[in-house]
Design brief:
The structure holds 3 protein chains of 3 kinds. Chain A contains 3 helices and 4 strands, in the order αβαββαβ. By secondary structure, chain A is an alpha+beta fold. Chain A has a domain of 65 residues: Alpha-Beta Plaits, CATH 3.30.70. By secondary structure, chain B is an alpha+beta fold. Chain B has a single domain, classed as Cytochrome-c3 Hydrogenase, chain B (Orthogonal Bundle), CATH 1.10.645. Chain B is built from 13 helices and 8 strands. In chain B, β7 and β8 form a beta hairpin. By secondary structure, chain C is α/β, with parallel strands linked by helices. Chain C has one domain: NADH:ubiquinone oxidoreductase Nqo5 subunit (Beta Polymerase, domain 2, 2-Layer Sandwich). In chain C, a hairpin with a 3-residue loop joins β2 and β3. The radius of gyration of chain C is 17 Å and the shape is globular. The chains are: A alpha+beta, B alpha+beta, C alpha/beta. Bound molecules: iron/sulfur cluster (SF4) (2 copies). One iron/sulfur cluster binds next to α3 of chain A.
Chain lengths: 101, 360, 134
């Protein structure tokens, strides 16, 4: 206990290392896997991403054209972004808000 | 009544346990005479699910066996598949794997240090450790895109490269971490109250540790020099690792081993950043795994063993994982009898238990 | 690719072979059980100086497996696990959880067996129950 006293006193006097979330937020790192984004203008609705998604979070249908992501199932691994032949999927570095508000 | 026996269910929800584990403790007054673990609260059937998923998807699955050693799970799995498919990983990828492995070891040991401090009520040490850990998580997010489950290992290499600027950041992080460690090292090594709680607690002999199959820091704290990195997987062929051992066999020795390993990891990271060759980071792997293989990797808690059996299709026939905590469970049962009830949390946390690993 | 250092054992000589490993100061690592249709492929892994040595046992369905936990105490956890997940009867366990080591009363029977997973697949296909406050 005594041996940590110096750092304890230092820590009390210095400004906190934590942030006052949600008022103050940390910026995401450039390559962060925040959330999945799909660009419908290039997607061919081939369904490869849906077949490869390890969490079964994607549902794609050609007719009618639809591409759905279940955010609660998605584990944000980014495999779909790697695998998409049209590079329609990208990982946005910003994290979504809880509950998708 | 003196001398009478009582049974105390310790856990599964207990303030010091990060994960659900129940110990049925048979007590004689305050002394534990017998301990029996009851697990199964977080069994998720991952081994079965792995048979249903494609072998490439399994990487993301095995990473979730345990969040704390996730990269090393992926590494052990990918190395196994690579052996089956005869894939040679590019040199740069091998070094990147080492860098991320050691960053994982650092954050895992810091997490453990915090939890151990918490188990004997030393809150400021807990905060100090977790505060340092945050810096490691930040550098992991900056280099990989994920804080803990970094998902960078793939069959044939890695998914991301670390740029020159980020390499400098990695070095800066480990430098700062080394300074932080200088604050906590004397506390764990020499502090009177810490030593009062750790020295002699949960002692097992080297003979017991060997016989009960303990791995990782639990074995090394008994003087058994076993560290699977010595065999030279990934870039450990070039970066030599000497196992760090202590002889006490008690919670204090285990703590010392882990603290010293953090310094070792920092050195390994520095060496890897210095020596990393330029080149490709992945080769494409074609075909499907066929045959049986056992792949082993040294995780922060000890050695993990993957048994992989492929049948030439994209699904595996069997994936079996023996995690380090599973091996350290039997030594834990040998440590508990004879201790005071108040020392049970310290002893349990001194093996750095990971229950999600154990149950998969 | 096939496993290195693997020797086949029969049910009759299993305990002898394992005791032999113990005498020669091998460490018990773990066991692996695979359901191969008409029986089980059971591997006992031992380690010495970073080398793995395996004993391979073929166990017909319905046959009883003798426990090695009296030779290697550490084996009792994995034997209890196999007993749960494959419903293989194992005799002479040092501590017998009676099939309730990992599983509870209402759990599926032999979930790791070939057939035993039907229920867990159902859950996966149905998806998680709809959250009400979506
Ligand atoms: S893989 Fe790409 S192109 Fe195909 S459906 Fe998915 S997003 Fe669209
Ligand atoms: S990020 Fe991963 S889990 Fe999420 S949709 Fe893409 S592949 Fe599926």
């Amino acid at each position: 206990m005594v041996s940590l006293l110096k750092s304890i006193i230092n820590n009390v006097l210095r400004k906190p290392v934590t942030r006052c979330y949600p008022v103050e937020r940390r910026n995401s790192f450039a390559g962060s896997r925040g959330h999945v984004e799909m660009d419908p203008s290039t997607c061919t609705f081939c369904g490869i991403c849906a077949r490869k998604c390890p969490a079964n979070a994607l549902t794609v249908s050609k007719e009618p054209r639809s591409w759905t992501l279940e955010p609660y199932k998605c584990i944000v691994c980014g495999y779909c972004a790697d695998i998409c032949p049209r590079k329609s999927i990208s990982m946005n570095p910003n994290h979504g808000l809880p509950g998708g508000i | 009544m003196p001398g009478s026996k009582s049974i105390i269910p310790f856990g599964p929800q207990h303030p010091v346990f990060p994960e659900p584990l129940q110990l049925r403790l048979m007590l004689e007054d305050e002394k534990v005479v017998e301990a029996l673990p009851a697990i199964g609260y977080v069994h998720r059937g991952i081994e079965k699910l792995a048979e249903k998923k494609e072998y490439t998807q399994n990487i993301f699955l095995v990473e979730r066996i345990c969040g704390i050693c996730s990269f090393m799970h992926a590494l052990a799995y990918c190395q196994g598949i690579e052996m089956l498919m005869n894939v040679t990983v590019p040199d740069r990828a091998r070094y990147l794997r080492v860098i991320w492995s050691e960053l994982h070891r650092l954050h895992s040991h810091l997490l453990w240090l915090g939890l151990l401090a918490d188990s004997f009520g030393f809150e400021s040490l807990f905060m100090q450790a977790w505060r340092s850990r945050e810096a490691v998580l930040d550098i992991m997010e900056a280099t990989t895109g994920g804080r803990i489950i970094i998902s960078t290992c793939i069959v044939g290499g890695v998914r991301r490269d670390i740029s020159e600027e980020l390499m400098a950041e990695v070095l800066k992080t480990v430098d700062a971490l080394e300074r932080d460690l200088e604050i906590v090292r004397p506390v764990v090594f020499d502090d009177y109250s810490v030593k009062q709680r750790l020295v002699g607690t949960g002692r097992i002999t080297s003979e017991q540790a060997y016989d009960l199959g303990s791995v990782g820091p639990v074995a090394r704290a008994c003087g058994i020099a076993r560290d699977f990195r010595e065999t030279g997987y990934a870039a450990y062929k070039e970066i030599k690792v000497t196992p760090i051992t202590e002889t006490g066999g008690d919670a204090y020795a285990r703590a010392r081993v882990r603290i010293r390993e953090m310094y070792q990891s920092i050195d390994i990271v520095r060496q890897a950043v210095r020596d990393i060759p330029v080149g490709d980071i992945a080769v494409s792997a074609r075909g499907n795994p066929e045959g049986e293989v056992i792949s082993r990797v040294e995780q922060p808690r000890g050695e993990v063993i993957y048994y992989i059996k492929g049948d030439g299709t994209k699904n595996l026939e069997r994936l079996r994982v023996r995690t380090p905590t599973f091996a350290n469970m039997a030594p834990l049962l040998a440590m508990l009898p004879g201790c005071e009830l108040a020392n049970v949390p310290v002893i349990v946390l001194s093996i750095d238990p990971c229950i999600s690993c154990t149950e998969r | 690719m096939s496993l290195m250092n693997t020797a086949a054992v029969s049910l009759g000589s299993l305990l002898q072979e394992v005791a032999d490993k113990h005498r020669k100061r091998y460490r018990f690592v773990t066991m692996t059980c695979t359901d191969i249709g008409d029986g089980y492929d059971i591997l006992y892994h031992f380690d010495k100086d970073y080398e793995l040595y395996n004993l391979r046992l073929y166990l017909k369905k319905g046959e009883e497996l003798p426990s090695i936990s009296s030779i290697f105490f550490a084996a009792l956890l994995v034997e209890n696990e196999i007993k749960d997940l494959f419903s293989i009867p194992i005799r002479d366990l040092v501590i017998d959880y009676g099939g309730r080591f990992l599983l509870t009363e209402d759990a599926p029977v032999a979930p790791m067996g070939r057939e035993g997973c039907s229920r867990s697949i159902d859950i996966r296909l149905q998806g998680a129950p709809e959250e009400e406050d979506k």
